[in-house]
Write a structure and sequence with these properties.
Layout (H helix, E strand, L loop, with lengths): L1 H44 L2 E5 L1 H4 L2 H10 L4 E2 L1 H5 L10 E5 L2 E9 L11 H11 L4 E2 L5 E13 L9 E9 L12
Parallel strand pairs: 1-6, 2-4
Antiparallel strand pairs: 3-4, 4-7, 5-6, 6-7
């Protein structure tokens, strides 16, 4: 009977730990979906189809590390709302595995699971990644992004308090057929 109680207690502890981890993952997925939905709405207004690239999203951890090495700026949405014009350097160019990306990092807004709360941040993200929009031979414009939530992260060793960040990035297109892409 004692052995059964010990096994039951261990199983219960495992289930509780798993539910905590799943709760965070589900919460992050809701935040990511809300951000993507808002970013797609902004893209629609510019006639750009915005979509997530799973292969890019898998690189988010490495991209975030490269962003920190590049000493990029993580933007606080509330602070950006209080200035008249967005800075020119909303995005940071980083190189990860010999590929160039533009990265926008935002401190997680309140109620980030609600896509309506991402309207203004989505404008900021789109503005930062606009140079990554590609146009095919039919004139269709697309923006493929990768993203992830970085929970309890610090950008520098001197940062006092860890924050939650949304990291959104896109690959910088390479020039085709001898043309130039200016960034």
């Amino acid at each position: 009977m004692k052995l059964f109680k010990k096994l039951a207690a261990a199983a219960l502890a495992g289930v509780m730990a798993l539910s905590l981890l799943t709760g965070c993952a589900l919460g992050d997925a809701a935040k990511e979906n809300a951000m993507l939905k808002a970013l797609q709405t902004v893209g629609d207004s510019y006639l750009v189809k915005v979509s997530e690239s799973d292969s890019l999203s898998k690189k988010a951890g490495g991209i975030f590390k490269a962003f920190k090495v590049a000493e990029g700026t993580a933007w606080d949405i509330d602070e950006l709302r209080n200035i008249e014009e967005w800075p020119d350097d909303i995005s940071t160019e980083v190189t990860y595995q010999d590929i160039h990306y533009l990265v926008v990092v935002l401190k997680m807004p309140k109620n980030a699971k609600d896509s309506t709360k991402w309207g203004y941040p989505a404008d900021v993200i789109y503005d930062g990644l606009e140079d990554c929009v590609e146009t095919d031979e039919d004139g269709n414009r697309t923006l493929k992004v990768g993203f992830d939530v970085m929970n309890d992260a610090k950008l520098t060793d001197t940062q006092e308090k860890a924050e939650d960040y949304m990291v959104v990035f896109a690959k910088i297109p390479e020039a085709q057929d001898g043309g130039d892409i200016n960034i």
